[in-house]
Amino acid sequence: GMPAPVPQTVAPRRKTRKIKVGSTWVGGDAPISVQTMTTTKTADINSTLQQIAELTAAGCDIVRVACPTQDDADALPAIAAKSQIPVIADIHFQPKYVFAAIDAGCAAVRVNPGNIKKFDDKVGEIAKAAKDAGVSLRIGVNAGSLDPRLYEKYGKPTPEALVESAVWEASLFEEHDFHDFKISVKHNDPVVMIQAYEMLSERGDWPLHLGVTEAGPAFQGTIKSATAFGALLAKGIGDTIRVSLSAPPVEEVKVGTQILQSLNLRPRKLEIVSCPSCGRAQVDVYKLADEVTAGLEGMTVPLRVAVMGCVVNGPGEAREADLGVASGNGKGQIFVKGEVIKTVPESKIVETLIEEAMRIAEEMGEP
Ligand code: SF4
């Protein structure tokens, strides 16, 4: 068949340098990756690996694990060896765990210079160990743990303060001729966060890890992250993303994936084009859309399925999609590639759509 057209993105990707994170790449022309963080105790190797397997299945590209104690550090070699996706150790306070994580075979280490005392003294050693092991780093600046000196200077974590901190920490590594790092400047306020990343992207070609920190429970956090990431990604800023939700990490992966798909930064899979319903609807659109979504969950081909409540926009949207239904008078007109293939009673709409979707998906190469 015809090759699929290259999907349009809003803006060209900003040029950043490419760094290696284990078996994957971040920055440059590497696809924008989705990250999350495990919520298990890292020392509990089996539970952590089990969660990583679930995250991998959900489409997570890179996973980060916390390492607050020696027991957690001791678990890193087994986790790094058995994880299907690159593992990043997340280190605060204790530089000794940075070295432990590098020795453990982690793909990368996230360091937060803001809460490592006398960080400047440790940079040379960290840079050498990381370089020798082929491990990359993330300089993770966070509003909640801004370097006290900058807190004093700016009074609060302003975009300027976050960027100054990041650029200073980057320069320390660069002085040691170490360049394999990405940077994040997270804040819980999307406005501050957007300004910080925009500013930072003007200052260097570091790959950027986007995050709205402490974004909140699922609904609020999803909106905050989608808004902030959307604003930046639409300008070509951002090389890897982490959605932070007070919800299970698999939800973070789903949201992150959906954000990238919405901007054509990752191939779209199943897409339900359903109408919001209105006073004209002649069918329960919410129920229909939910049932079709549930019936087609996990589909890996880019199938657009339109679910429309009436005949106003119904046939038009249904025609644009691979498959669709426009409802009216207790019946559903089923469209495939613009053609009405049959009209079924309302009670048969869901099963007919699912049957047809499966058939088309098989033709498209769904395993
Ligand atoms: Fe309303 Fe029909 Fe549009 Fe749905 S398709 S929102 S029911 S006019």
Automatic annotation (TrEMBL):
Biological processes annotated in GO: isopentenyl diphosphate biosynthetic process, methylerythritol 4-phosphate pathway; terpenoid biosynthetic process
Q: Which UniProt keywords apply?
A: 4Fe-4S, Iron, Iron-sulfur, Isoprene biosynthesis, Metal-binding, Oxidoreductase
What's the superkingdom here?
Bacteria
Q: In which pathway does it act?
A: Isoprenoid biosynthesis; isopentenyl diphosphate biosynthesis via DXP pathway; isopentenyl diphosphate from 1-deoxy-D-xylulose 5-phosphate: step 5/6
List the cofactors: [4Fe-4S] cluster
Q: How is the cofactor bound?
A: Binds 1 [4Fe-4S] cluster.
Q: Where is the IspG TIM-barrel domain?
A: 16-256
What sequence ranges are listed for the domain IspG C-terminal? 271-357
Q: Where does [4Fe-4S] cluster bind?
A: C275, C278, C310, E317
Q: Which InterPro entries does this UniProt record tie to the protein?
A: Dihydropteroate_synth-like_sf, IspG_bac, IspG_bac-typ, IspG_C, IspG_TIM, NO2/SO3_Rdtase_4Fe4S_sf
Q: PANTHER family recorded for this chain? A: 4-HYDROXY-3-METHYLBUT-2-EN-1-YL DIPHOSPHATE SYNTHASE, 4-HYDROXY-3-METHYLBUT-2-EN-1-YL DIPHOSPHATE SYNTHASE (FERREDOXIN), CHLOROPLASTIC
The entry assigns this protein to a family as follows: Belongs to the IspG family.
What the entry lists under NCBIfam families is as follows:
ispG_gcpE, PRK00366.1
UniProt name for this protein: 4-hydroxy-3-methylbut-2-en-1-yl diphosphate synthase (flavodoxin)
Organism whose genome encodes this protein: Kytococcus aerolatus
Organism lineage reads as: Bacteria, Bacillati, Actinomycetota, Actinomycetes, Micrococcales
Which gene is this protein's source?
ispG
